[in-house]
Amino acid sequence: MRSYRNSFQYKVATGRWTLPVAILLSLAVWGSTADTWSDIGVVFSCAFIAYLLIELNTRFSLIRTRTTLPSSLFLLFYAALPFLNAGGEEGIFPPLFLLALFCLFSSYESPRAPVAVFHAYLCLGLMSFVDACYCYLLPVMYLSMCVLRSFSARTFFAGLVGICLPYWLCWGVGMYRHDTAFLHDRLQQLVAFSPMDYSGLPLNACLSWAVAVLVAGVTGVHVYRSSYKEKVQTRVMLHVLLVMEVGVHLLLLLQPSRFNSLMGIQLLLGSITAGYMFSLTFTRYTRWASAVLVAVWCLMCLMNLWMHFYSF
What we know:
With 312 residues, the chain is mainly α. The protein has helices at residues 8-14, 18-33, 40-60, 69-79, 93-106, 113-130, 138-147, 153-177, 181-190, 203-226, 232-254, 259-280, 284-309.
């Protein structure tokens, strides 16, 4: 019987050429869908995310092998959704969320946990300042702190100060300019809950969402069932990723009008859990699953490119 080390899945998961090939394919797709030079900001944003994903795995040992698969999966699936590459404000949310996750993981049993929590919630505050729906992730962040054993009175108030800091700075600028209308508009958006209306989602967005949910569900269950093999710190952080993933999925379900804003976060979390599954498990099931994942990516690319150029 042939060893799994000779399998295609193993070579992709641990090979040195996986990330360069993913970058070239992503650039090819982006180049065919970019409308203006302003879209180049998306490329730099995704490059920064790919680097942070590698640093996240190196710093916290989420995957106990050398792999760039999470970064590669994120680049490929983000590029496969041209409606996320419009060069708008949606591009700043995934890197800010990943920075918040990095700071939150740093608070695990740390004597300087309030500092790390402050920076994590500052990133969340900046995200909510641009798109108010991210403020609804506040309970998920506090629940994640409980899982990370970093919740205390000091970290609770450090988080509140961090998320309120952008609004406080905006209030100071508004008072200096004698114009606080912009701040009032931001605060009103925090309490304005959008209706659950799915009619505005095009067919390709719905199908892409279904694929993301399926991949997240399959890989999330695998991570939950296999995390007992890991060290306590790694197991705790993997469970935090699952909590975050469920929270983002629920928020997207309740706020479909924020689809473009939240889908990038969904892909980011799903790429980590999928990278964990395909980098550490080499069975007949995962070999077939990896082949299906490649086929799904190709179909998503073709469908979204067709919808991008020939809208019905």
